[in-house]
Amino acid sequence: xxxxxxxxxxxxxxxxxxxxxxxxxxxxxxxxxxxxxxxxxxxxx
Length: 45
Known about the structure:
mainly alpha
């Protein structure tokens, strides 16, 4: 099989971290983690 320009074009599949769904998942994870830490701190008081 030869290497052609067609094989090198990503066809819209960008990096995983560049996708909007990944950004939303990371933001949701950060918010959930902050909520868990806040609840744990309140429970220990």
